TrEMBL record, chain A:
GO-annotated cellular components: plasma membrane
Presence of keyword Transmembrane helix: yes
GO molecular-function terms, A-Z: transmembrane transporter activity
Protein name: Rhamnose ABC transporter membrane protein
Lineage start: Bacteria, Pseudomonadati, Pseudomonadota, Alphaproteobacteria, Rhodobacterales
TrEMBL record, chain B:
Entry's Gene Ontology molecular function annotations: transmembrane transporter activity
Membrane topology term: Multi-pass membrane protein
Pfam families noted in UniProt: BPD_transp_2
PANTHER family: ABC TRANSPORTER PERMEASE PROTEIN YPHD-RELATED-RELATED, AUTOINDUCER 2 IMPORT SYSTEM PERMEASE PROTEIN LSRD
Function noted in UniProt: Part of the ABC transporter complex LsrABCD involved in autoinducer 2 (AI-2) import. Probably responsible for the translocation of the substrate across the membrane.
Localization of this protein: Cell membrane
One GO cellular component term noted in the UniProt record for this chain: plasma membrane
Domain of life: Bacteria
Lineage: Bacteria, Pseudomonadati, Pseudomonadota, Alphaproteobacteria, Rhodobacterales
Protein's UniProt name: Autoinducer 2 import system permease protein LsrD
Major site of localization recorded for this protein: membrane
Length: 326, 333
């Protein structure tokens, strides 16, 4: 089983590399290090959210409310900044993460305590969160000139050649790499998704693990909410509209099985990078950005068909007798 | 018939008082519909007018057409989140045909065909390749609408023939619209299909136990494929009505409608996990949602605030019976 996962990631990494080479033949400047850094920075929010979504999908759930969570947190911190421009950035960060985590916890409680299917819960909270943005903002925009320079500057400050936004994404990847492989929480997430019944017998509370997965996803959405609003220096009701689909697409492309239990941090990151490269390459190779939606849709379908195929061969090895009985 | 199926599927802790509550779901819903009607007629003096009520039906007729097919799909244990995107694609195809001089009959054929093909596309991935319908239809949700964006960009198609307006703007008699006629006919067809035919029995059987259904001789994959086709065709019909009513096509047409359709189905008492639900329940749910949106509209509540209400409704409808069961269980012990 461990042999399959690196293989899949190698294929994806190869696909990204081939894609970059193809673009380079049309427009060499695209693969210049400075431009690749720009592409990475542009993809950073997607990477952060894909990691949160990965944790949720691994536990056999799905979180469709991440983009709405992001937008609501972004609007909330932007309005806090307008009301109290002196508030230091660490406090803003703490508020954003807490707000996001609370929204994630609402999803988690409904899934854990009331056993409502996650897709229904998060479809519902997705519209509720978006609606609340309209209620608190009255449908108005918070524009760049209303925000304090420190608030918008934080995400763009360059440290050691990369903006803070990129560094936060890298830090998140490192933390998740350690968390998923080296902590009891990370292992229990795989256990819950891989086989919930077995997880119960090993003393893992399945519902509670799913709850914490939603809290993690929500907290990251909140964090990204602040970074997003700071980077684009604007907050309104529809920011990141439909972004949840891109996040799920990144995970599916990255080889995270929607049936839970299978997936890796590297896969999620590569899936996000693949979409990021495609998105940034479209204008360079003179394709209308309107192609983006159809491309990510096709990528989901191809990836899920591909994943199911490799998963099926694995099932056959374990359950040979059951397979022939069918 | 539904009673036996429901009691078999309801988990142990929902027995007793909660089970009885679930059984009378349609009755409860009807009470809610009447209450909303009465509240609305007091809240706004414009509510109780035949023409206003006739206009109000446009809030739900198109969604309900899809909801009937979606109800069968959800009862069988699958879901289709791409319905709103099928509307966008079908509408774009019709708009494209108009630019090449198509008349009303051609437009109808094109709308239905695109819906059918989209349904077949979903059905192929789910039943032939055996992939989970949630992921497949999240993918096609982007793909179908994505194709509309590729064709239209930020442009719009207009110039539909005058006779095409009949579907979305026409009246059969006095205040009774063409869409109402479609709604009633489609509701009857699906009611008979689900509750009076072998096919309907098979849908319930598959939702309760797919393996058991397979061993009792039901062609599970074929039934599911047909259900995806039906959902696609219904989205095509809804696309014809919506395009005819709006008179133009943008790629953002019907955005978010899949949520309202699923909410309508779940509100109608269909178990989101499959296995139980009725068409009369969905009919009443359609009226409840239509009356609520219309009532809010008369009181000048903006659309996005109504969507909060729909989100709360979706979660509340599933959460309340479960909370009730938990309270009842705690009281017993």
């Amino acid at each position: 089983m461990t042999r399959f996962i690196p293989l899949r990631e190698a294929i994806l990494a190869g696909a990204i590399f081939a894609l970059l080479m193809m673009i380079a033949t049309r427009f060499a400047g695209f693969v210049a290090p400075s431009n690749l850094a720009n592409v990475f920075n542009d993809t950073a929010p997607l990477i952060i959210l894909a990691l949160g979504q990965m944790v949720v999908i691994l536990t056999r759930c799905i979180d469709l409310s991440v983009a709405a969570n992001l937008a609501l947190t972004g609007m909330a911190v932007a309005m806090i900044n307008v009301a109290m421009p002196g508030l230091p950035i660490p406090v803003i960060l703490a508020i954003a993460i807490t707000l996001g985590a609370i929204m994630g916890a609402i999803n988690g409680i409904l899934v854990w305590k009331l056993a409502i299917p996650p897709i229904v819960v998060t479809l519902g909270t997705m519209t509720i969160f978006r609606g609340i943005i309209f209620l608190i903002s009255d449908g108005k925009w918070v524009n760049a000139h209303e925000m304090s320079p420190a608030f918008t500057g934080f995400a763009r400050t360059v440290l050691l050649g990369l903006p803070v936004l990129s560094w936060i994404a890298i830090l998140t990847v490192v933390i998740f790499g350690i968390m998923m492989a080296r902590t009891p929480f990370g292992r229990s997430i795989f256990a819950v998704g891989g086989n919930p019944h077995a997880a119960v017998y090993t003393g893992i509370n399945v519902g509670k693990t799913q709850f914490w997965a939603f809290v993690v996803s929500g907290a990251l959405a909140g964090l990204t909410g602040y970074l997003w609003v700071a980077r684009y220096a604007v907050a309104y009701v529809d920011i990141a509209g439909g972004f949840e689909l891109e996040v799920v697409a990144a995970c599916v492309i990255g080889g995270i099985s929607i049936a839970g239990g299978i997936g890796s941090v590297g896969g999620a990151v590569l899936g996000a990078l693949f979409l990021g490269v495609v998105k940034n390459a479209l204008p360079v190779v003179n394709i209308s950005p309107f192609w983006q939606l159809a491309i990510s849709g096709s990528a989901i379908l191809i990836a899920v068909a591909f994943n199911a195929r490799s998963g099926r061969t694995k099932g056959r090895i374990i359950l040979k007798s059951a397979e022939t009985a069918q | 018939m539904t009673d036996t199926v429901q009691t078999r599927h309801v988990p142990d802790r929902l027995q007793g008082r909660a089970a009885r509550l679930l059984k009378s779901w349609e009755a409860l819903l009807l009470g809610v519909a009447i209450a909303i009607f009465v509240i609305n007629s007091f809240a706004s003096p414009y509510f109780l007018s035949a023409w206003n009520l006739s206009d109000a039906t446009f809030n739900f007729t198109e969604k309900a057409m899809i909801a009937f097919a979606m109800a069968l799909l959800i009862i069988s244990g699958e879901i289709d989140l791409s319905v709103a995107s099928i509307i966008a694609l079908a509408s774009t195809a019709m708009g494209l045909a108009v630019q090449h001089g198509a008349g009303t009959p051609e437009l109808v054929v094109i709308g239905l065909t695109v819906g059918l093909l989209c349904g077949a596309f979903n059905g192929f991935f789910v039943t032939v390749l055996g992939l989970p319908s949630i992921v497949v239809t999240i993918g096609t949700m982007s793909l179908f609408r994505g194709i509309s964006y590729i064709i239209l960009g930020d442009d719009a198609f207009r110039g539909y023939p005058a006779s095409f307006a009949w579907f979305g703007q026409g009246y059969i008699y006095w205040v009774f619209t063409v869409e109402m006629l479609f709604f009633v006919v489609i509701a009857l067809v699906y009611g008979v299909l689900l509750h009076k035919t072998n096919f309907g029995r098979a849908v319930y059987a598959i939702g309760n136990n797919p393996t058991g259904a397979l061993f009792s001789g039901i062609r599970v994959a074929r039934v599911k494929f047909i259900l995806f086709l039906l959902t696609g065709v219904m989205s095509g019909i809804a696309a014809i009505c919506l395009t005819s009513r709006l008179g133009s096509t943008r790629p953002s047409i019907a955005t978010g409608m899949e949520l309202e359709v699923v909410t309508m189905v779940v509100l109608g008492g269909v178990n989101i996990l499959g296995g139980s639900g009725t068409i009369p329940g969905v009919v009443i749910a359609a009226f409840v949602m239509g009356l609520v949106t219309f009532g809010f509209g008369l009181l000048n509540v903006p659309g996005i605030v109504m969507s909060i209400f729909i989100g709360l409704l979706l979660i509340g409808v599933i959460a309340l019976p479960r909370l009730w069961a938990m309270v009842a269980a705690r009281r017993k012990s």
